[in-house]
Amino acid sequence: MTEPNQTRFNQEAANWDSNPSVVLATELAVESYLPFCSASFDILDLGCGTGLLSLLLAPHVRSITAVDSASGMIDVLTAKLSSSSSHQNVKNVLAVCALLQDPDDARLQIDPLTKATLGSETRARTFDLVVSHLVLHHIPDLAAVFKTIYGLLKPGGKVAVTDFEDFGPEARKFHPESKMDGVERHGIKREDIQKIIEETGFESVTVETAFELPKRVESEPGKGDIESGPTKVFPFLICSGTKP
Ligand SMILES: C[S@@+](CC[C@H](N)C(=O)[O-])C[C@H]1O[C@@H](n2cnc3c(N)ncnc32)[C@H](O)[C@@H]1O
Q1: Largest Cα–Cα distance of the chain, in whole Å?
Q2: Quick one: which of 7, 20, 83, 85 is 20 to 30 A from 151 by CA?
Q3: Assigned architecture for domain 3-242
Q4: What is the pLDDT of residues 8-64, one digit of tens each?
Q5: Do the Cβ atoms of 66 and 87 come closer than 8 Å?
Q6: What are the residue boundaries of the structural domains of the chain, listed by start?
Q7: Minimum-distance ligand 1 atom for the alpha carbon of 29
Q8: How far is the CA of 158 from the centre of ligand 1 (A)?
Q9: Closest CA to 162 of 213, 101, 214
Q10: Cα–Cα distance for residue pair 52/87, rounded to 1 Å
Q11: Residue nearest to atom 27 of ligand 1 (CA)
Q12: What angle do CA 67, 72, 78 make, to 5 degrees?
């Protein structure tokens, strides 16, 4: 995670949920994640932002550890989970501010449901499922992040991640030119991500089209007219694998 990303996401956090394409992308993504969920599962949402995905998945799993490196994003999620919010009944989501690079990170050792902390004599918490939505295109080193995810999972645990596909030069239009800071790549290339996940050690790796997101784009690069610009359809991939 680079400095421009941190600054950008802290600045955008307060208004994140008022971006209609972010909300629609999450609503569409949930359908792709539900088949991976089970009522007994402890899951980790890597790059959870304001918790849009975590809060929709929470009723379908035992617990969610929602992790983001941008404190502004975590502040918004924490406010959503507070007693004065409409999400106050959600008791199985824990918001954690961390740049996740170490699967044994001490900040992950709290059970969101019971709030019990694992002692240092116990081995680190591991998860049944790691999800991550709209994050991979911001990650400089994809092999490193999948290695971290692998370490976070129980044997038999699964990774399932969604992001827009790099389907060619037009994929660049996903972001307006003013928001290219911290964009490491213009979407995910199918063959590249399949290879990275397999080389991490995951089995039964699949990379499939999950849904298509209609999204307004700039009429010309840098024009700054995204709110009135033409609509373009962006394919999203769901990439999954199982830890043996
Ligand atoms: C485009 S936002 C997506 C947020 C959310 N998943 C959503 O769809 O609304 C990407 C998020 O990933 C976070 N992020 C990127 N790399 C991370 C890492 N290694 N650990 C934790 N958070 C990370 C950023 O801070 C940012 O909030």
Answers
A1: 57
A2: 7
A3: 3-Layer(aba) Sandwich (3.40)
A4: 899 899 999 999 999 999 999 999 999 999 999 999 999 999 999 999 999 999 999
A5: no
A6: 3-242
A7: 8
A8: 19
A9: 213
A10: 11
A11: 49
A12: 60
